[in-house]
Design goal:
Elements (H helix, E strand, L loop, with lengths): L8 H4 L4 E5 L5 E5 L4 E5 L2 H11 L7 E7 L4 H7 L8 E4 L2
């Protein structure tokens, strides 16, 4: 039984996740507004992270072609000053 509460409607509008590979071949996951993301060594773990973070909504996960870099510095600069640091996760 899943005991987690579903994400609220405000977070659903920002829960689109993009998955691609960076220049080093690692899998990159980042939400649309750049506040959550991570680096992963395989596609399966990247997809699991994106699904967990978006409330298990496969329609909100998009695989993107080409090189995709994770830039948490740019995400923090564009977010509001009172925002919490971006959540990142790196697979070993």
């Amino acid at each position: 039984m899943n005991t987690q509460e579903p994400p609220n409607s405000n977070s659903l509008s920002r829960s689109l996740f993009l998955i691609g590979r960076n220049s080093r071949g690692q899998w990159v996951v980042r939400n649309q507004c750049g506040t959550r993301g991570g680096l992963f060594i395989d596609r399966v773990q990247a997809l699991k992270f994106a699904m967990f973070e978006n409330g298990q909504r496969p329609q909100a996960v998009i695989m993107v072609p080409g090189v995709r870099e994770l830039d948490i510095n740019n995400a923090m600069a564009s977010s509001d000053p009172g925002a919490k640091p971006a959540r990142t996760r790196q697979a070993a």
